[in-house]
Amino acid sequence: MSWFNKIRQDIANIVPAIDYFEQQLEEARLECGLKGNVERHSRDMPGVVEYRFNQLQEIEAILEYLNIEMRKIRNKHYRKYLEGYNKALSSRDAEKYADGEDEVIDQQHIINEVALVRNKYMGLIKAIDAKQFQINNIVKLRAAGLEDVSL
Known about the structure:
This protein has five helices and no strands. By secondary structure, it is an all-alpha fold.
């Protein structure tokens, strides 16, 4: 089962999911290196790109799910202040009070942590793109007759 589905079933799975993606990120950093056999790196690149990009998409889906839940939580507290408060509040005041609720703030912290992991994966994807570019350059050099290019 994907982490997205696990989190949809129980939000408590967010901590193991973040740990999993952080561990995967550490492993993926090794894939960004370009040392050794260029042909092997070239052969493996499509699979690496597909796997890591799919992980990024899963993180994006988790982040969107958390944002949807955030809007739901904020709306609940907003209505509480707008409809059930002792004195009449403007919609802006009710919004500010709702944003200060502990439940809303906790959800914002979770969203921030997942966004950080997402941003790290975006950096990883850029590093993989740079590796692809370098492999292409080395292959062109070898095609031009510079066989002694070493990594």
